[in-house]
Design brief:
Chain lengths: 138, 138
């Protein structure tokens, strides 16, 4: 069993400050469309980035266990949110991955990334669909 | 409909770099117990902080709509992860909130925080339990 602990502080007239021991603090705001500042991370962006980065680290771990050589990994993730009768709701997250590998290992590396969705603890904590699209550059 | 877009880049021998337009970039690593560096945010910490901060911003929004005066808000959030047959899985997130308000509004402010769980889009995107414990300091 592992635990992940974060904390935050807010006072009137200030931004929220997200902290976790030993790491740089983050100033957090609502997204600008809901009254926040455009130069701060929002909870919505943190969530999308958490999913995206978990898939990356899980992919690299799977590739390493299979002794595959990943020469680069980039991705873009888009979280979709809608207003519903129950309030704002995420409806899904699309993650588009571009991974670099030698031609001989390209298909295995692609499969390692696709397999990550099964093992990534962050995407598995979500009830909304996480859709993964993977391209390999050789 | 709103979208939240993040991106990341990784190269062999480097940390992952999480970005989103106009905000400071974050260096991301696995948690130290899985081989990462202890001074970097991990996807696990980003997820827990996303839930925690969404509950805070939603609470403040509800309080504002009800014209309640919140004098301070602090919280700690703990995400629990276990190894299962399917891999690492989050089993729940506990969020402990300490909010400050005048005695006359204490109960209403507490209720505003408790109501946040119903409206926060991040906690509502999760399939794991998010447990909220709220104390009011007057």
């Amino acid at each position: 069993m592992w635990t992940y602990t974060t904390s935050l502080k807010w006072q009137p007239g200030q931004d929220g400050r997200a902290e976790t021991a030993g790491r740089p603090a983050l100033e957090i705001n609502s997204p600008p469309e809901f009254g926040g500042k455009p130069d701060r991370w929002s909870p919505e962006l943190l969530l999308v980035s958490a999913v995206e980065n978990c898939l990356m680290l899980t992919s690299l771990d799977i590739a390493k266990r299979q002794k595959l050589n990943v020469a680069g990994y980039e991705s873009t993730a888009v979280g979709h949110m809608e207003k519903t009768a129950e309030g704002l709701r995420f409806t899904g997250i699309d993650v588009t991955v571009r991974v670099k590998a030698a031609a001989a290992e390209a298909e295995k590396v692609k499969q390692a990334v696709l397999t990550a969705e099964k093992y990534c603890p962050v995407s598995n904590a979500m009830k909304i669909p996480v859709r993964l699209n993977v391209g390999v550059e050789t």
